[in-house]
Specification:
The protein has a nine-stranded mixed sheet with strand order 11-10-9-8-14-6-15-18-17, sandwiched between helices. The two termini are about 35 Å apart. It is globular and about 70 Å long. By secondary structure, it is an alpha/beta fold. The chain has twelve helices and 18 strands. The relative contact order is 0.12.
């Protein structure tokens, strides 16, 4: 039974969970708030690397105050022994009287078992409080567990007329400093930032989050079937400082593999389709490695390829108040459509202003 203050406390727990995004993979980022008599006694969220879990952080803060209290948790507490004992055991031992969760954990090792163990111990369990918000926040973990794929956001920046570069290839900078700073903040909420060889050769990016006071950096991913991007690039030169994974095909030359390996980058061989990587296979490999949320920063042709393969969950489109004209490069490459009815129609889920530029977020 949902009580009047349940949603407010769960909203607090969700805000805590959001702090861990990009730092907890392969574990979900979970938030927990412990309340007794209207007083918040403990708060926690999943720590970097996935441990300690949110419940244990909150219980440690609450101490003996947890006895008879209510724990608000954004995901069903774990019920299996991994690198740490189950959170259900910790909640039961603490004397918690009631547990309120936002959603059931789809992981087959848990999936309702956590709720059942709590009830068997005499704890009152209320499920489904702010479930839509929780599912949106933990979409990466949910998709990896249920579909074997990471939640993928494609970031694009375009002019009002949908161009990302002039006819000569000039693209720096279409958007202003505030929008570029927002992109760096987006990088921090993702497990990894991914680009392809074409964009890497043109921009020579390093894909880090800069000027944000960040204590961590996202994993950096390069998709390069034949390893044509130089190991002497910014990604290669900084691979020992911030990890880089390079996904390539069996056709990549031995010399290029050796050069990239010497930088400290991790090389991952992927299936290919012709001269290009099989994108679905590559993304499944990344999910199998534990990645839950990937931010793609590449050009329109690569973005279109991901859309064609139904690998894009969210489109983050920055629009600048500028006009380039039809001779410029379009924001998207070919989608192979022959009718308007076949056009993908993502729905708008958010809009923000960053300086003179507008960010719209679209879900597929």
């Amino acid at each position: 039974m949902i009580r009047p203050d349940d949603e407010a406390h769960m909203s607090h727990a969700l805000a805590l969970a959001a702090r861990g995004l990009g730092r907890t993979w392969p574990n979900p980022s979970v938030g927990c708030v412990i309340v007794n008599g209207g007083r918040i006694l403990g708060r926690g969220f999943t720590q970097p690397g996935g441990r300690p879990h949110a419940e244990r952080m909150a219980l440690e803060q609450a101490g003996q105050g947890a006895r008879g209290a209510t724990a608000y948790v954004t995901l069903e507490p774990c019920a299996h022994h991994g690198k740490t004992p189950p959170c259900t055991d910790a909640l039961i031992a603490s004397g918690i009287a009631r547990v309120v969760t936002a959603q059931t954990d789809p992981d087959p090792r848990v999936s309702g078992r956590g709720h059942a163990l709590l009830r068997a111990a005499g704890i009152t369990v209320t499920e489904g409080v702010l479930e839509p918000q929780a599912r949106a926040l933990q979409a990466g973990f949910l998709k990896r567990v249920t579909q074997g794929l990471p939640f993928t956001t494609v970031k694009l920046a375009a002019t009002l007329d949908g161009r990302i570069a002039t006819a000569t290839g000039e693209s720096r900078w279409i958007t202003g400093p505030a929008a570029r700073r927002a992109v760096h903040a987006m990088r921090l909420t993702h497990d990894a930032v991914l680009t392809n060889s074409g964009t890497a050769r043109i921009d020579d990016p390093d894909l880090t989050a800069r000027d944000m006071g960040a204590r961590h950096q996202p994993l950096r991913l390069l998709l390069d079937a034949r390893l044509t991007h130089s190991a002497a690039s910014r990604l290669g030169r900084t691979a020992r400082e911030h990890p880089v994974w390079v996904l390539h095909s069996a056709a990549a030359p031995a010399e290029a593999r050796a050069a990239w390996a010497a930088t400290g980058a991790r090389l991952i061989e992927c299936p290919a389709r012709g001269d290009h990587l099989d994108l679905t296979a590559a993304f499944r490999l990344l999910a199998a490695e534990g990645l839950t949320r990937i931010l793609v920063e590449a050009g329109g042709i690569f973005a279109a390829a991901l859309i064609r393969d139904a690998l894009v969950d969210e489109l983050a489109l920055f629009t600048a108040g500028a006009l380039i004209g039809s001779e410029g490069s379009p924001v998207l490459g070919p989608l192979g459509l022959t009718s308007l009815a076949a056009a993908p129609r993502p729905h708008l889920v958010g809009q923000e202003t960053h300086g003179p530029d507008i960010l719209t977020r679209w879900r597929f």
